[in-house]
Specification:
It comes from Halalkalibacter akibai (strain ATCC 43226 / DSM 21942 / CIP 109018 / JCM 9157 / 1139) (Bacillus akibai). The protein is mainly α. The protein has one domain. Helix 1 crosses helix 5 and helix 2 packs across helix 4. The two termini are about 20 Å apart.
Length: about 80
């Protein structure tokens, strides 16, 4: 699995208990073998992309506050694709 997607999967695991759409996105990451972030983002439904955008904003803010530059860089790779 692409390292950006691995970081994304880990971040999503923090949100799966309370959000069914996050569960669905997490399952996509678990069940499909995406070659890269672009392939993953193209496979998202509109509502999944919207929720993932919100989750990534939260997770990026958290990583910045913790000064976890590696996590910021990895998650930002997916986040930027959602904005295109």
């Amino acid at each position: 699995m692409d390292s950006n997607l691995a970081f994304l999967r880990e971040s999503l695991s923090n949100h799966t208990d309370n959000h069914k759409i996050c569960q669905r996105i997490y399952q996509k990451l678990e069940q499909n073998h995406y070659a890269n972030e672009e392939e993953f983002v193209k496979d998202l439904e509109e509502n999944e992309a919207t929720i993932l955008n919100l989750v990534l904003q939260y997770e990026l803010d958290y990583a910045r506050n913790e000064q976890d530059d590696v996590r910021v860089q990895q998650l930002n790779g997916v986040y930027e694709l959602l904005l295109i």
